[in-house]
User: Fold these one by one.
Assistant:
Number 1:
Amino acid sequence: EPEVTQTPSHQVTQMGQEVILRCVPISNHLYFYWYRQILGQKVEFLVSFYNNEISEKSEIFDDQFSVERPDGSNFTLKIRSTKLEDSAMYFCASTDTLKPYEQYFGPGTRLTVT
Amino acid sequence: AQSVTQLDSHVSVSEGTPVLLRCNYSSSYSPSLFWYVQHPNKGLQLLLKYTSAATLVKGINGFEAEFKKSETSFHLTKPSAHMSDAAEYFCVVSGPGGYNKLIFGAGTRLAVHP
């Protein structure tokens, strides 16, 4: 069964550094999403992306964040200057046009900012 | 605005006994409702969804949920728990029409004892 994959599984970075979290959505999916879960808190929506544009973004998704689909398979989340409070599990998800209600999630990347 | 409240942070059952995970929702329009499950070190997996069709929805692994508009509830049930059901369960709400951001509850950790 096709799966969403994410790399790396765990990323440790120093405050102020840039990180790029990578996702490979399911191959025929066209809608992409990033969510995050700070330890002990709810899963929160960050951004949705379709047709090479951001469809919707949350208040969390400020200028330090950006998303990109650099090629036909990858979907990335860049955090420009990481802060301690960016430490979280980041989940990528994708949706098929034939099943618009079903978001398929990757296993997540745990980002630790020190 | 939309939100979900999961009424129990932890539920513990014995193998073979029924499971009930409670969820109440708030939505200013017709919601789409979901239950997702997360096993350790795995991504979020869709268990079932309600999208304005039948109010009793069946999902994978014997789970089902009933949409009760009068009670604004969407409780998840299973007649007989298996050890493999031990996981974190998330009640999720979204707007109508598909492709929308998901709004997560805080999660309920289900423990299943022999």
Number 2:
Amino acid sequence: GAGVSQSPSNKVTEKGKDVELRCDPISGHTALYWYRQSLGQGLEFLIYFQGNSAPDKSGLPSDRFSAERTGGSVSTLTIQRTQQEDSAVYLCASSPKTGTYNEQFFGPGTRLTVL
Amino acid sequence: AQSVAQPEDQVNVAEGNPLTVKCTYSVSGNPYLFWYVQYPNRGLQFLLKYITGDNLVKGSYGFEAEFNKSQTSFHLKKPSALVSDSALYFCAVRDGSNYQLIWGAGTKLIIKP
């Protein structure tokens, strides 16, 4: 079956513009994560969705960042008034359920460049 | 607090030699441990995990990892390295009560022909 897909694969924007990043998880996966990976760095947790529960937004770095997940499937990460320090690869992952032993399946990422 | 350490930024190994990528962790409860690999310009791929049971876990591409509770380690190993194993490797951990994975900073593995 299809894996996790993300779009766009690359996004170049000007400082101050808003951007939307999309994630389409594996069908049937109820858990969805967003991460940020800066060049050569590890993964920084941003936000977590599980089914219809309230999302865990504890990793969002500022109120310029927000995310939605519609119908328990597709998710959109929105960054308002982008700054140069927002430049990074944004990764989305999904998992079959909340169980802590389930691995996460990652999309290819969106590389965001803020000029 | 939960944490993961990958003490080596980079590991260089000659093709055909055994390789080890180190990972140590700190969690308050029982650890669930994971290894992922990231090839250039690609997303992360799951390699293997330890949940419970045998301390030696076998995964994809001939990799294995050994869980050592007393040393709080989960080192990734492969008996004979391939040039195609060159990639960025991440160790991650969560405890039984937390859905969040805590990630190491990653280790760049370079296999030289």
